[in-house]
Specification:
It is built from nine helices and nine strands. With about 270 residues, the protein is of the alpha/beta class. It has a single domain, classed as UDP-N-acetylmuramoyl-L-alanine:D-glutamate ligase. The strands form two sheets. A six-stranded mixed sheet has the order 3-2-1-4-5-6. Helix 3 packs parallel to helix 4. The chain is globular and about 45 Å long.
């Protein structure tokens, strides 16, 4: 039996809907062994982020080194990297260990509005981390920060994805369309061609952790050797079902349903 492995380097969400917790749940649901390096601890629930506590740099580095020197990883992803020093350290660790299948989710703001990326960390993200990424997965506000563009249309999304690849050195980019009205169409640019990922929109406040879950699903599929386009399509289906079959827990922005994809497939068999 082949064991595929994925590493998430991100913040912890005590409410379980986003961050490390969402990533590990997603890996597990997609038959990938998940490992983690925690960059920050958050006191968080569906009502918001009530505290952020960065892990010391030495602790982050030792987590990454411990995992990769022994277990290894077929793919990795990053999430919340709140400070420039953390981004620079993580980038150095990725280079040192030669990680190639890296998905960068440029987490900037929590669903409840709390900032998860310091303003002075934006340049470090662009200059240190994006050139190492096989894929970058910004939502529209994040794509605007990265590129400096105003993104309102599909054509704008295409241009933002193109710039992330051509100007910042990423292998590919998916600009997610959930912040636009209408059907949530994502734009994937693989360095040569554009691909549109379409899905259904479900009106719900329970969408906490969608970005983490989507990028984790892509990471898991890449760890299994799937192509980028195959991984993106699976991730789109995974997150669409996770939103559709809402758990309905919490008084605020509740988490998505990480069971939904597997249960839907089992029901169809």
């Amino acid at each position: 039996m082949t064991i595929f492995k994925a590493l998430t380097i991100a913040g912890s969400d005590s409410g379980g809907g986003a961050g490390i917790q969402a990533d590990l749940k997603t890996f597990q649901m997609l038959d990938v062994y998940g490992m983690s390096a925690i960059t920050a601890i958050t006191a968080q629930n569906t009502l918001g982020v009530h505290g952020i506590y960065d892990i010391p740099l030495e602790g982050i580095e030792k987590q990454i080194d411990a995992v990769l020197s022994d277990l290894g990883a077929d793919a990795a992803k990053t999430g919340m990297l709140s400070q420039p020093e953390i981004i620079e350290l993580v980038a150095e660790c990725i280079r040192k260990h030669g990680l190639k299948r890296l998905v960068v989710d440029p987490v900037m703001v929590a669903k409840g509005g709390a900032s998860l990326l310091a303003a002075n960390a934006q340049n470090a993200l662009r200059e240190k981390l994006l050139p190492l990424a096989a894929l970058v997965t910004p939502n529209i506000p994040e794509a605007e920060v990265i590129t400096g563009l105003s993104v309102t249309s599909i054509e704008d999304m295409k241009e933002a994805a193109r710039r992330i690849v051509k100007e910042f050195g990423a292998g590919a980019a998916i600009v997610k369309g959930g912040h636009r009205s209408g059907e949530p169409t994502d734009v994937l640019y693989d360095g040569e061609a554009f691909h549109l990922l379409t899905g259904e929109r479900y009106e719900t406040r329970h969408t906490h952790g969608t970005g983490c879950t989507f990028s984790a699903a892509i990471c898991a599929e890449l760890a299994k050797g799937k192509t980028l386009l195959e991984a993106a399509h699976t991730a789109k289906q995974f997150i669409t079902l996770a939103i559709r079959h809402t758990l309905g827990i919490g008084a605020g922005h509740g988490p998505t349903n990480h069971w939904a994809y597997v249960r839907e497939r089992a029901a169809a068999e």
